[in-house]
Amino acid sequence: MTDESLTxxxxxxxxGRVAExxxxxxxxxxxPSEKATAAQHAKGKxxxxxxxxxxxxxxxxxxVEGLRRHRATGFGLETKRPYTDGVITGWGTVHGRTVFxxxxxxxxxxxxxxxxxxxxxxxxxxxxxxxxAPLVSxxxxxxxxxxxxxxxxxxxxxxxxxxxxxxxxIPQISVMLGPCAGGAAYSPALTDFVFMVRETSQxxxxxxxxxxxxxxxxxxxxGLGGADVHAETSGVAHFAYDDEESCLEEVRFLLSLLPSxxxxxxxxxxxxxxxxxxxxxxxxxxxxxxxxxxDMRAVIEELVDDGEFLEVHERWATNIICAxxxxxxxxxxxxxxxxxxxxxxxxxxxxxKAARFxxxxxxxxxxxxxxxxxxxxxxxxxxxxxxxxxxGAKLLYAYCNATVPRISVVLRKxxxxxxxxxxxxxxGADLTYAWPTNEIAVMGAEGAANVIFRRQIAAAEDPEATxxxxxxxxxxxxxxxxxxxxxxLVHDVIDPAETRAVLIQSLAMLRTKHxxxxxxxxxxxxx
Length: 527
Fold this sequence. Notes:
- There is one protein chain.
- The protein is an alpha/beta fold.
- It folds into 3 domains: 14-257, Alpha-Beta Complex (2-enoyl-CoA Hydratase, Chain A, domain 1), CATH 3.90.226.10; 280-438 and 481-510, Alpha-Beta Complex (2-enoyl-CoA Hydratase, Chain A, domain 1); 443-480, no CATH class.
- Helix content is 41%, strand content 17%.
- It has helices at residues 3-10, 14-30, 34-42, 48-55, 115-131, 150-166, 183-190, 208-215, 221-225, 227-234, 244-256, 282-285, 296-303, 348-363, 381-385, 388-401, 416-421, 445-452, 454-459, 463-478, 483-486, 499-510; strands spanning 62-64, 87-94, 97-104, 135-139, 172-176, 179-181, 193-197, 202-204, 239-241, 309-312, 320-327, 330-337, 368-374, 406-415, 431-434, 439-441, 492-493.
- Strands 10, 11, 12, 13, 14, 15, 16 and 17 form an 8-stranded mixed β-sheet that branches.
- A hairpin with a 2-residue loop joins β2 (87-94) and β3.
- The longest helix has 17 residues, at 14-30.
C-alpha cells in the first residue's frame, strides 16, 4: 500500500470533519453534565453561558479559545481535561457596541484558575485593550487551582498587571456572581466598577474558617463579604442587586453611559426632554433655611434628562452622591452633597468615594457637574485620627487634576475648606454658578460671630441679644447671595428654575475644551 493510499484511507472527508467539529461545539455548549448544570441552578445561579446571553445583544457572542484544554498532570488532572478549562472568553455587543467578556464556569473545577484558564483571560484582556473596548468579567470562581501549584497562582499576576495597564484606558466592570476569595477578589478591586448579587456572591481575602482559626471570630460568608457588607460598609461594591437578571441589565445600562475607551466621548442620545424645561419645582424642593434637610436626589432627578440617572455607591458614604446621567443627551458625572445624611458634610468615606468618581469621569471624558450644599468637613477625633486631612486631599487632588469640563452650582451652604474642595472656581472649575439662596463663607454666621466678637459678646449686658445682632450684621455684610459674585468667585447667580438650561448651554460651550497637564510620568496623589 502506497503512502498516498494510506493518507486517503486515514483522512475522512471534509463533511466528516465538520460534523466532528459541530459535535465538539455542542459538547462545549452543554457544559460538563446536566447534573452540574442542575447543581448550579439549585444554588440560584445561572450558568456562565446563560449570563453571557443576558449581558450581550442576542446572537452577538463570538467565543475565543473554546477548544482550549489544560496540559497539567498529577492529582488526577490528566484524566480531567474539559474544553474551555473553566472560563468562557470572547466578545459581542451591548447596544450595538463591542464589549469583551470572560465568565468563570463554576461547573468546571469550580471555576478555579489554572495556567490555561489564566492564559485565556490574559488573551481576551489584551484583545480588549488593543481593540479599545470595555471588558466585563463575570466572576464565579474558587480562586487558584491548587493542583497546579504556583503555575496557577502566577496567572493572577498576569491578570493584575493587565487590569492596571487597562485602567483609565478602557472601562473595566467586574460582576461578582459567586464566592470569590483571595486573589480572585483583587482583580475586581482594580477595576472601575464592582457589581454583586445578594446571597450568592461574596468577596473576601480570607474566608470564615481562616478568620475563626486566626482570630476566634465566627461569621458567615455573607456576614464577612456579602453584597450588602461591601455595598454599605466596606465600599468595595458599587452596586448590589437581588438577582442576576436585574444585575446584568444594570451592567448593560452602565455600559450605555460609558465611552468604549479613553479616546472617545460617551455616547450621546436624542431626548424629548426640552433643554429649556423650567425647573420650578426646585424652588420648593430646596428650603431656604440652611438647617432644614432635603433629598438631593430629587434635585438631580429634576435636572437630568427624563429624571433618569444611575447612582454609584448608593449605600456607602451616603452624605455624598455620585451619579451618571444625561443633560441634553450628553452624559455627565454628578457629584452632590446630600443634606439628608450627616447634613451633607464631607468625611473620610465621602472624600474617597467622590475622589475616585471624579478620576473615573476625567479618565473617560465625562464632564463633571458639582452641586454644593456643604457645611464643612466632619469634626471629631475619629476623623482626625483616621486621616481626614489625607483623605480629604484625595478629593482636592482629583478635582485639581481633572481636565474635563467642570461646572459647579452652589445651591445653599458652601462653608470653609469643603467649599474650596468641592470644585470651586479657585481650583479650576470652568464655570461656577450660585442660587440666590447661597451662603458662601469661611463658616456659618453663628460660629463666625462667636470667634470674631467673643469679647464683645462676653462684656455685653445682654450677651444673647448682642450675639443675635452681631450674627445678623455678619450675614448682611459677608454672607449675602451676591458677595461672591461681586468678587468674581462665581460667574453668575441664577434662578434655580433655569439651572437645567444653564447647565446644558454651558456644557455645549465646553464640549471642545482642551487642557494640558504638565509633562510628567504621573503625579503622586495623597493616599
